[in-house]
Amino acid sequence: MYLTWLDSNSWLIELAGKRILLDPWLVGNLTFGNLTWLFKGYRHQERAFPESLDLILLSQGLEDHAHPETLKRLGKAIPIVGSPSAAKVAQQLGFSQVTALKHGETFTLDHLTIQATPGSPLGPMVQENGYLLKDLASGVKLYYEPHGFHASTLKENAPIEVVITPLIDLALPLVGSIIKGTESALELAKDVQPQVMLPTAAGGDIMFEGLLLSVLKAIGSPDEFRAKLAENNLDTKVLEPRPGDRVEISLRPAAIVP
């Protein structure tokens, strides 16, 4: 397995012989509803688009996961799998092969399965997706959820060798944590016993500005999370790849049960 972090929530996953582009924001600015005064993310240099993609995977329909400007520049024949809201965005942008996955549903691509899990709630009526990917040949699993909202049923799939999720909290006054990492990720580690965890939703080479930044509060750090793992006798390794670096994920062989 190889993972390449492309800033923010954007990843290139190489698993089961497939190249999957996850939640891509590679070019242009990031805003929500064009409210640049409230929040704006930008980069000084566009990130190169990965080649030879087998699939685009979208966890949410919001701009930081289904970034319209980035999606417009990707080939419309590339298959897309996404939450129902993300699938709607992809269809509106002209993609020809779009699959909407509801919670519990599975998409199969040769020797790779992708199961949608309950993810981040966006209001009372919408709950977006996390994803559990499995290489059917090796049995290796990878789980991704970008806001730290994890289904309790994930423990039924333990062990999950690789987890990509926030390891810190981002909180708003009166609202609380909009990204949950400190305790949520620790409980997840206890439940699914990952060998490797990687933080997502961090800035990387991206700059942010706007009124929202003045009230957002970051709580925790990857080093503090490592300390919590050690306190709980968990040998999970935390990796922090640099943006653009292709990292090989080395895993221990699965334990043989007599």
TrEMBL record:
The keyword Hydrolase applies. Keywords: Hydrolase. It comes from the Bacteria. GO terms for molecular function: hydrolase activity. InterPro entries: RibonucZ/Hydroxyglut_hydro. This is Zn-dependent hydrolase. It comes from Phormidesmis priestleyi ULC007.
